[in-house]
Input
Amino acid sequence: MIRWNGDWSKMIKSRLCNALLSCLLLLPAIVPAPASAEPVPVAKRVEAKPVSGRIALTFDDLPALTILDDQPYVTYLNKVLLRELKLHHFPATGFVNESKFDDLVRPQQIAVLRAWLDAGMDLGNHTFSHDAPEELGARGYTEDIAKGEVVTRPLMAAHHKRERYFRHPYLKSGYPLAVKTYIDDWLTRHGYQIAPVTMDADDWEFAEPYDYAISHRDAAMAAHIKGEYLSHTEAMIHWYRRASQALFNRDIPYVILLHATRLNADSFEDLAAMLKRNRLKPVTLDEALRDPAYRTPDSYVGKDGVDWMERWALQLHRRLPNEDKNDPPLDIQQAYDRVDNDRCSGGSDCSNTPAAPAKPR
Ligand SMILES: [Zn+2]
Output
């Protein structure tokens, strides 16, 4: 995953007519209230409950995203995730990288996918290798997608399901335009629907330091990371809802990007409570994508991987509240850099980052 560092202010076009119309419509609201009127307490307005919304849970990098070469760890975290999803009656979609099967014990890695299907969850394609288009070229990338369905597709057929969804690794959809168009056309011809991301709380950045803390039996560090993760996630839920208002003037059904990690397994009770507190009801990806917002064209063509709120802001010429969007805390970013050098592959300047041991992704 790569952060977007673009300057959106350059892309904002004048919407004077709309602004004027909005002002006219708002006129009654800005007429000063009579002196005798009771002022509305600020706290009451802040604490107003959000309207109920919907959210589709998606988990990338199945069988698991972890820095540990440990099959029981992978099997365990999936068992907990699926148990919790079923307990709460939450549907979910897992996106698979079949290259990971041979990183650990292949039959047990495949058994993880079977467990997802047995639990009633859906699966999608996340490419075979988790490489980006610029690494493989347009044709190589689509061959990698096809290679990534060899095991998953028959498994799904045995569960009377069809592999329909595709999620781009790093949310990189191809650059320049000819590459993006080639990939998009291939996906359409092969019956895939792109699974956009409209909520992202950077869980991957917390998850690997968490693996490290668990493997070193550092319970205090694990608890600290989990606490930071949950705070950041709730802040991002609020931010994406503001983003949705900025683009669509309403709360669209969100598609949240999560990963199959031990952190999410161990945090699930808290995440479920958070969704309930924020009145977000988990729905299937299918249901979320039926919302008209998801028919907004994606005209973004660039080297960075960006989510669909950012893509649609370009399309709709609207401004996102990026000044309020926070990165994960610095100590988490530093901990991530210590255990993973993966972000160096995405074009970031990693010259000062010590190389971490290679690991399966
Ligand atoms: Zn991924």
